[in-house]
Fold these 4 entries.
Entry 1:
Amino acid sequence: MTAELGLFALTLAFAVALVQSTFPIIGATKNYISWITLAGPTAITQFVLVALAFGCLTKLYITSDFSVLNVVQNSNTSMPLLYKVSGVWGNHEGSLLLWVLILALYGAAVALFGQNLPPALRARVLSVQAMIAIGFYLFILLTSNPFERVFPPPPDGRELNPLLQDPGLAFHPPMLYMGYVGFSMAFSFAIAALVEGRVDAAWARWVRPWTLAAWCFLTGGIVLGSWWAYYELGWGGWWFWDPVENASFMPWLAGTALLHSCTVVEKRDALKSWTILLAIITFSLSLLGTFLVRSGVLTSVHAFATDPERGVFILALLIVVIGGSLSLFAWRGPQLKTTGLFQPISREGALLFNNLCMTTATATVLLGTLYPLFVDAVGGDKVSVGPPFFNSVFIPLMIPMIFAMAIGPLLNWKRGDLFGALGRLKLVGISSLIVTGATWAWHNDGPVFATLALGLSAWLGLGTLVELAGRIKLFVPGAGSWARVCRLTRASWGMTLGHMGLAISIAGMAGAGGWTQESIQTMKPGDTIKLSGYDFTFKGVHQRKGANFTSAVGTFVVHKNGIYVTNLSAEKRNYPVGKMQTTEAAIHTTLGGDLYAVIGDHDGNDGAYVTRLYFNPLVVWMWIGAIVMVLGGVLSLSDRRYRIGAPRQSRHGHAKELEAKSMI
């Protein structure tokens, strides 16, 4: 009965979404108070029902109920409990159920914590959220039922994809979806604003916390995914410009631009139409990522669906949502009047330049991702667009943006002094040139972009510190710097941490991408390989049995200049049920770089194995910088201005406003 209860709850949630998508938005148009007030209760009810359905599916996995096809295909009695639970969303049907669960969660959050929103705007926002949900409910109920029964039930399941049986991949999809789906809130606010015909500072302040929360989750999800690829796939890298990776990176780029654009709307009442368009584009790219992963057009560990009918359904949904929203923008967008004027050299101008770089980079990634699919669809020859294209096009677009990021915060609103800002950054520029020159002298056979990236990292990091020092008047006698530090808002600290985190991450990307050293060979026990000043001695392989796998564990002892550094134990796992092998890299992390070892196949009868050894300079800085960026976002979210959004009306005031409108 658990499966039937879950399906019934999901069907009932669809019915509630139908009510939520129609009555509140009509009520907001006609000023029907009772219809407007339906938005909150229906949003909360929808979430409770979807949570019940998700809980039922989770129970089916935990209890290994193999009368349900979804459990049979993605679970096994021998799997650890963590992977039984993560198996709920480690497949096509379950991941879509997670999608609508998070969508309903955001709607319920607006219903519960958005009491400061004007009732009509809140009703429209929640109605748009429900419209999005309806499309996914139909998709699940018609093509992707997670509660489908199988008869007779097999004695055991086929097991979750072994590559997904990893703690990082257990938490990566929910966090990624919290980001993907979170941008639906910015989309819903944008559509509601177009329908209402009003975008102002209060609107920007309401939409920013939802956008920032989605950005934080998406950043964390991307970082977890790249970290998983780094230690699980065994090739020593962390990013390959894979289409599925790009599917998450594109909304991140557009969402970052949206965050900065909202600031201009809030502070200067400018860039209104552009901000609305960015909100639509950001969520559209999230939907596009869903299409790429769920349609079967890509082959990937993340790409679950292979049924063309499912792909056609998602494509139709994509066309309706994106086409409809862009048509509404074309109709209503020109009516959004802007009062804030500014000179090109100003903080607004710098933020706009940031937006242009981000959106151009997004378009570049989009082109490189979709072009091979388009050529294949029209019957052309197979085309591969990989790292060489993206690195040669994307990186040059980022260089001017990063350069401007240190200058922008030093400019005044409306009209800035470029030469004055550059004067304040004189020492920063000199220091950056020294870093660039020293890097070139230290390792002049590496990529030019990596050398420039370290210099830009220093430029952005030191420039961020100069901006902070200027804000608290650190070097001004008698200015009360400590008191100014205490008065700084959390949002200001969040911006500083965000920019500083990016600077740290750039340094890590430059080191790992530019000067990684690799050695691939066959090693017998006792053999030693020297790499980047380290001696890796292979001690042999022993067998180990896990809960649902067996593994060959290869041990390396690492010395440097005769001094013991660490032991590295790399694994090659075999999953008999899934009939698949996975690689578990051994990693020793230092601030200077990672020692990284992988064992491959057995080669001969004398205990020899193929091994891959790496030294990845500065790579940990990339993870540290990403964590700092997320912390900056979380700190900004804790700012009281984000928690309250805009001045809150009393309930009595709301009632009087609605009563007055209903009498018009």
Note: The first strand starts at residue 517 and ends at 523.
Entry 2:
Amino acid sequence: MMTDIEIAQSCQMLPITEVAAKAGLEADELELYGKYKAKLTSDTWARLADKPDGKLVLVTAINPTPAGEGKTTTTVGLGQAMAKLGQNAIIALREPSLGPVFGIKGGAAGGGWAQVVPMEDINLHFTGDMHAITAANNLLCAMLDNHMQQGNALGIDPRRVIFTRVLDMNDRALRNITIGLGGKANGVPREDHFMITVASEVMAILCLANDLADLKKRLGDILVAYNYAGEPVYARDLKADGAMTALLKDAIKPNLVQTLEGTPCLMHGGPFANIAHGCNSVQATKMALKLADIAITEAGFGADLGAEKFLDIKCRKAGLTPSCVVLVATVRALKYNGGVAKADLNQPNVAALEAGIVNLDAHIDNIAKFGLPVVVAINAFPTDTEEEMEFIRRHCAARGVRVALSEVFAKGGEGGKALAEEVLAVLAEDKADFHPIYELEQPLTDKIRAIATQIYGAADVNILPAAAKELANIEAMGYRDLPVCMAKTQYSLSDDAALLGRPTGFTITVRTARLAAGAGFVVCETGAIMTMPGLPKKPAAEAIDVTEDGKITGLF
């Protein structure tokens, strides 16, 4: 059996100019990054702005197992299947982070015969967007520390610096560090921290900005610290916004690639959904809606994380209105939520499936709260039994929910036709009545409670004193009307990864709160969430190599 990278390397890619023409893009709207990658110029939107929008389809999932269950694969395969059915469809995805690539998850460009290519480039340096975000973030940190070193005219309190450095790599040793040691010439000593790049506010800003001018304004609005009088200090106060924008002037342009079957894919931005807002860029999604009759995008991890943030944050800020949600489920993940250990997921177990299917029910119910129709996609694995899959079909039918088997991993677009037909049927019905689950005018604590009780199913919310104090401070600063971005484990509806299925009676604990004024939301960390992951005992990096002729091996 061929590995993902072997399948990708066997693919005969189309020149990106041909893919662009297929998508309705003009040659002078491309900035080529070799033969198979391109960025779209800033002039592209001006030509497309007045075109009517296509229909927006969101792909999300139930709570996954630690191994991941193929949401990106389903998204890619659905796009390929739409093309096989003669539909004008484009997919819009996030860019992978190097952290998971070299850590536990491996690549993030789909899998099997439903991948975006060039897979190696996408999973590694791609067009340099991640590096640009890292550099812009850390330039701001360097300018902040330099300001304190060079007289500290703004009176920044080194104990109240809230903006941290980032690195696009899993490196637990950098979570908590001390900087400025070694004498006066080396800066002001203080405690600092690293987050992974995909958790950076700069990443969120890039993904939510409408254009270069909006990007610069948002970068200037980043809250970096407080001064000794307790007053906020922003990036614009350090005069860092212009240089940061210069570093991001190319990164803000959406990237164009293709699937194994030549379907156009706009891949841009990559915030994680468990610690950030989990959606690709507004620009890429809006451009896909202008170029195609059907734009298919994904939101990270389960619907309790990525979909909630997509619908409550991204759609609200960008004026997007989804028409359909595809909810990816697997027999494996449902059995995991029924209490089966990861090592035993390949064994038939209808009883565990019956116990775990309540997790699917929770996500179906949650999507309905946003007024959106749902199609369940059963992402097929070779170890699934017909009895197990039939159980899911009967369960969905009893709930009046459309369901289809997705075999895109093994069969590409051909294996996604049944799913695509169900999605097309929903789009034809046109029954979506989209609305967020809370109003922006509500207090921040009410928004937190709405997410925790309505989406997670919590009985109560415990906001720890430090978080409550910061939430009150944020409201006093005039930011009450911002949405909330909850950082939470992806493995459970609760903030405890061990509580599987559809837990009840639990309390969500909000440990910290911080203002992301540039991004335009308030981040609340729950449970034991880590914003800088660590590598596993046997990282994926150990299997990755390159041959003498430059061919990469072992990449997923």
Note: Residues 51 and 279 are 23 Å apart (CA to CA).
Entry 3:
Amino acid sequence: MTIPDSTFVYDALVQKNFFPAQKREMEELPPVFSTEALQGSIRTFLEGEPLRRAGYDQLIYKATRFNNVPRYMAVPHPLPYIQLAKCISDNWDELKFTASNDESRIKPQEHSDGRLIIMDYETAINKVRRVSKTSFGKKFIVRTDISNCFPSIYSHSIPWALVGMPTAKNTMSDRDIWYNKLDRHQRMMKRNETVGVPIGPATSNVIVEAILGKIDEALVQEGFVFAREGSFSRFIDDYTAYCNSHEDARRFLSFLGDRLEQYKLVINAKKTEFSEQPTPLNPLWLSELSTRLSGSHTFAQIDAIRYLDFALTLMASNPDGSVLKYVAKSLLAKAKIGRPLLSYLLNLSFYHPILLPLFYTRLPNTALLRPFKDELLMILGENARNKRSDGMVWAIYYLKTLGFEIPSDLASMIRNTEDCFAITLLYLSSPDHEKLVVDFANWLLDQKDIYLADRYWLLLYQLFFDSKIPNPYEDETLYADINFRQSRSETQQQARDREVKIFNELKTNGISFVL
């Protein structure tokens, strides 16, 4: 593992981990959205611009989980995000302990593709080695997680964790001290609110690792370490501890709960469980499937379809496991790819949109989907009805890549979802939908709500970049509330000019967030 330096951290946060891209194969979004261009002089310009006094709002992206419950991810406005990333980079010496925390399974690292955070599980062999050593001789295991972790992070707890509560409280009024700057820049990304960090950008992972890393240190100091690697581990906000007795397991849980409470976080009681050792390293469904799918031979299509049938059967008794996705990923790597298998997988994708990115990440060529235009359109319509961001953008991406037009009635359905990413991709898919999207953008601006404009900054900026609409922040009625101004001495015109300048400079420098 390579501990990154501050330059790598800054570049990674801005250019690689701005949009949701934390899965190993970057399954969150199609490869259309990018912040690679945010470097050099434009980044320097954004670092130095004054922030809106009341903060900014952020885009929402609904990623569908294996049980079809949405996970709300966010993409901040670029101005406050870059300033937060710069603050983290400038103070990396105070934060780099997050990259060397032995108890954390997911931490900032210098990944070969330039990313700082990749939220992926360790290999099966590495897990066996780690767990075998840390659990050896321990008789009990306790598993728990933090209830609603990222949305519950209290921004003032960042200084509490980094320098201790007494010091933090005694210096709260010092806006220029580094840990208070970190707190303030975090708040600026969402309306200056003190509760919640967005799921998606890697800045949030650094913040969470800083807070939970201090809790990990307290657990180690309390004695919950009996081997070199430690007797407990944490995967983001999921804790697993191996203990000598049931009493020790309860003591671990009690101590963890007390420390979390100090930072206004709580244990998730519904996901807390005690078990007597030995316990399996993996759930039964994973052992069954991996055994059946092991080996280097290629599966015939009919065998692959039978494995998918088996996965559907297992899903009924394992609703909390991503059974179907595991099998689909394995089969796309091992099976002979033909129309029957693709047809079945697309059929399953209609019900489980979590499978849709696999046609990009696992197929040798998305042109293999060409015979399935009608199926892709049906998938798009189903996800538009359910307002699933990921299901819509992946379906639109495949249709656009294959050169298929999206019918006007389906385009209207997408517009009515009011989903920023889907509508942006609809606009990019064909000139035929330009008027529909521009009319939607004008409707947004007619609401005279600066936060609403922020929640669609990606769409509005792209339309402005393409000269389809004027700079969306030009309307002076957006600045009627004095809280939007930088200071009480600032005029409404000055507040407007400050906001307008950001998009103007981005456009002048040729910055686009889509490829």
Note: Residues 202-221 form the longest helix (20 residues).
Entry 4:
Amino acid sequence: MNKYRTHNCSELRDTDIGKTIILSGWLHRKRDHGNLLFIDLRDHFGITQCVIENNNRFFELLEKLKPESVLKISGKVIKRIKENENLEIETGKIEVSIHNLEVLSFSNELPMPVFGEQDYPEDLRLKYRFLDLRRDEMHKNIILRSNVISFIRSEMLKLGFLEFQTPILTSSSPEGARDFLVPSRLNPGKFYALPQAPQQFKQLIMVSGFDKYFQIAPCFRDEDARADRSPGEFYQLDLEMSFVEQEDVFDVVEKLMIKLFKNFSKKKILNDKFPRIPFNEAIQKYGTDKPDLRNPLIINDITSIFLRSDVSFDIFKKLVKSGAKVKSIITKNTKKQPRSFFDKIDKWAKEQGASGLAYFTIEKDNKIIGKGPVGKFFSEDSLKEIMKICNASIGDSIFLSCGTEEEVRSILSLARNKIADELNLIDKESFAFCWIIDYPMFELDKKTNKIKFSHNPFSMPQGEIEKLNFKNPLNIKAYQYDIVCNGVELSSGAIRNHIPELMYKLFAIAGYNKDVVKNKFSGMINALSYGAPPHGGIAPGIDRIVMLLANKKNIREVTLFPMNQNAQDLMMQAPSEIDKDQLKEIGININLKKKD
């Protein structure tokens, strides 16, 4: 028999009444009733209430013990009186009368309580993460994460995928985010890089003749933190398949996501067949390639309205003549909303750095009019045209933004979500997946005005290779795709370019000559030169999937030991300074410039 317990702290029921048992766990909380002392004993599985009388020799010890001390308790299971039953916990109909007590570990005064789910400063939570993880909600989040990963692994094996592990120490890549570099002791002056993703290796697995691969892969990127992105490392379901087209990848991932989300959430999935939205359409309709399809609001371009002679909104007209765009969001049947609602949205837009959002409501008396601060600037005919373009009706309201394409898109993308939240338009009990497809192969770098890859440099361009117009590379689309759920990008993927000569041409457009490509991607290019199958894949983010399933807005709530926003591990005090002898051994001198 295990000397620490006969049962765990969620096992005992009224069928166990009269039994002598042993429990071990943490002192969760205690309630002193004078002659009786009640304690909640907690372990990984749950909570059991225990009671001790003041004539018990362990009463005084237990009375003085600090919360989170670790105890071994032996005693008899007794029935709780009816009015003291707690049906919110599984052991709520019984309690344990304590006969013997052993303190296995004493706790110091807690820097933050474990009992309860109050909010605490993030730095405090991360410094004492081992305490934070004892809290019920956090504990459940991490268990959910483990179960999700186990489920995914099981499903992938059922689908005929083989699990392989790719190297952690690899070469630096000129594309993507910043690498984490690792100096090589045996090769002085040279560095490994931690993989931003197993991109090249998983393609090499396909070239090696394996048909379907996956792994729960750790990835490392030296990026700034966001709510949905860790600053150092993250995990993804990395998968790749041979002899496939885009729809083959979609079919596997859609089925997996539907089973996964239905298994771990009671929320409904809005579409079993995920909508396919071209990148350009997503940008025009939603202002982003990460649209939340639970939100019904759509962005419409009404720039042409301001070329009409019967529109007297001179500020916007002058800007339009200078090349500005005017776009709008229609809110349905909002004429009864108070003026304060519209002013609040306008004020919010200014707080985001925009010049505000003009607005008016479409109403009808003897004729159609625009009611609101700028409604008077539009004739009845111009309002009818707006209604036609935006599919608006009498009683609807319109928010307007004028500026450069990027400025307008940026503020209206945010405004869609802000307005929808204010009007309670988003169904919080649903998941809305979609595919964003047809990404441009290249884009213009705004800082350098040079052409660069917009997504994944190893992607296959769309169209017949012989007919690709390399002189107009910004018009080339790629077989690249993202999967988005509730406005969160879960992953990116692509059908890969498996033709070396085509890869040289594409990299040349982005400024990499043949020698650079051979040097930076020698393993990949060399392998593709010996017969490579058409292949493709994707890599859904584990952290973001669990974040959605746990209904959390911050990825750190579903990560065991995350860093803070400054990429610091406050618990382990990393990054830290390195001993001079260690630095000497790997041939590195640190010469930090003094701050002025």
Note: The chain has 16 helices and 24 strands.
